[in-house]
Write a structure and sequence with these properties.
Layout: E1 3-14, E2 17-28, E3 32-36, H1 43-51, E4 55-63, E5 66-67, H2 73-79, E6 81-84, H3 96-103, H4 118-124, H5 126-130, H6 141-153, E7 159-163, H7 171-187, E8 191-195, H8 199-203, E9 208-213, E10 216-222, H9 223-227, H10 230-238
Parallel strand pairs: 3-8, 3-9, 6-7, 7-8
Antiparallel strand pairs: 1-2, 1-4, 4-5, 9-10
Amino acid sequence: MSELLKIEGLSAGYGEAVVLQGVSLSLAEGETLALLGRNGTGKTTLINTLAGATRQHAGTVALGGVALHRLPAHERAAAGIGWVPQERNIFKSLTVHENLTAVARPGRKGATAAPWTPDKVYAMFPRLAERKTNLGTQLSGGEQQMLAVGRALVLNPRLLLLDEPLEGLAPIIVEELLRAIRRITREEGLSAIIVEQHPQAILAISDQAAVLDRGTVVHTGTAASLSAQPELLDRLLGVAR
């Protein structure tokens, strides 16, 4: 598989505060990366940096050979970034359908899977189809998360960024979202980086894994290997220094 994302020597943060230091990672086309770590280790900052929502101090980020770090945030969707932040950022004053059609972009040339359209999102999330005319304020938390994922998909991105997509959701909604993410990555072949506090759930649907601690990468490897070593996983995620 060809390399899609390459991060080298990345340092970034907010204002003068540096959160990430010397982060280097890569991801192949069609692969999913589980991004793990305790709270406050820089996971969200890395996702936000890829989306262009932080201040980058050093390093480079390339997406499909395009120098992503040189692009302002508003141009990164066109470059291939689909971002689902923790805050979801749906348009609450618009209907479900208006949320999807307002941001939809045509599919990429050469893509093997059919492009993501509002109708394709509705087929994956029937709850959204039932609430097509409802405003964002009239949706449950789980439905808002589905809509946030759908909005990212209709951009037809090359890389999907999911920041704690299961946080605060009921177990039945968690299972529904996990099935959807598995379909998006496994069946549709869309590359993704997933930040999540439930490591085993995400490792099960990921190809690669990376663990951050104090803003640096302390472990990389296959998701299957890390999942098969629960003691190592506990040590990486549970040790407070």
